[in-house]
Write a structure and sequence with these properties.
By secondary structure, the chain is mainly α. It is built from two helices and two strands, in the order βααβ. The chain has one domain (19-84).
Length: 85
């Protein structure tokens, strides 16, 4: 963790390489479990969506939905100066 960061959270080990819905949902649930216990993420309004990954359609796959949520998470973390590892 570099200087200037207020906090750090370890979640990258919970990411999955698989792109099937169940693997992605399991991964996002595990991430949500960690973040729910961390006071620094109490104001992250999209956290509940981590537990509701869409099964996808012809336009957006489950992995696309999860990646968008992770983008929101990283933006929030940057704004709060939280290091994600």
């Amino acid at each position: 963790m570099g200087r200037g960061w207020n906090h750090k959270v370890k979640i990258k080990h919970l990411f999955t390489q698989n792109e099937d819905w169940q693997s992605i949902q399991d991964s996002m649930n595990a991430i949500a479990d960690v973040l729910t216990k961390d006071a620094w993420f109490r104001t992250f309004v999209d956290l509940h969506k981590f537990r509701q990954i869409s099964e996808g359609d012809t336009i957006m796959r489950p992995v696309d939905y999860a990646n968008r949520l992770l983008d929101f998470l990283y933006n929030f973390a940057d704004d709060q100066r939280i290091w994600i590892e």
